[in-house]
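## Example pair
The file below holds two records. Each record gives the amino-acid sequence first, followed by its structure token line.
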Amino acid sequence: MMSQTEREQIDDLPPSAKLVFKVLEYQGSLTQKQIVDESMLSARTVRYALERLEDIGVVTEDIYFADARQNLYDIDFPTETDTEQSADAQCAE
């Protein structure tokens, strides 16, 4: 779950960074090109938004093994949907 401080930091970001965060929250791990396609933002805007999100520590960058020239971006903490899915899994046991 996101802390109050992290939520406040995200609230202070520009709208493009908030949109990129939401895209990652709903879609999961994506490359920069996939984020551009999903968000309909320019590549430059997505690059800037990812930098801002990485600066506050809510997005991580990893190697995309399907194409090592690209990076894979993901949210760095469990989201509400992840928490709900783990709760559902526990109920199923």
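Second record, same layout:
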Amino acid sequence: MQPIQVQGVHHITLTGADRRSAIDFWQGVLGMPFVFEQPNLDAPEENHLYFDPGDGRLITIFTHEGRKPSGRPAPQGPGCVHHLALTVSRAVFAQAAQGLKARGLAHSGPKDRGFMDSIYFREPLGLLIELSCWRFTPPEGFDHARVLAEAHRLRVARGAPAIADEHVAEAIAALAAARGR
């Protein structure tokens, strides 16, 4: 039997608190345009807010006026979401820590992930949010996943513990060469 072939993430839906806290965070802090709202068609007592994270997909939030932000870390056991990673530009990443601090949001500070940089913080309901910034641009005709798959192959062949800049650079060169560039 063939696997069900997915073509990408359609949307992500999170359970939020009240409408105002959702708009204040997703639009006010993260700058995601508020696209539209309607009732949650499976639970009409809830509202369903739609936000644009910037890539043509959607992040949606179920809200209910009886729920309030708790600020407690969200559960992280099996079956739970560990964190939501959002892409930001290098310029935005350089200002992220300062912007989070100005809003009173505690954060991890910049973290070196080898092929990307990250900063972590919790949104008002306790979900861990990661702002991620790529350290490389894929060659024309390739995406980040293809470059990382090749970099991983190189890393494993050399016995390195994690992908490093050298693996990414060689992967980009190999992919560009394969295209005749």
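Notes on the second record: The first helix runs from residue 19 to 29. The radius of gyration is 19 Å.
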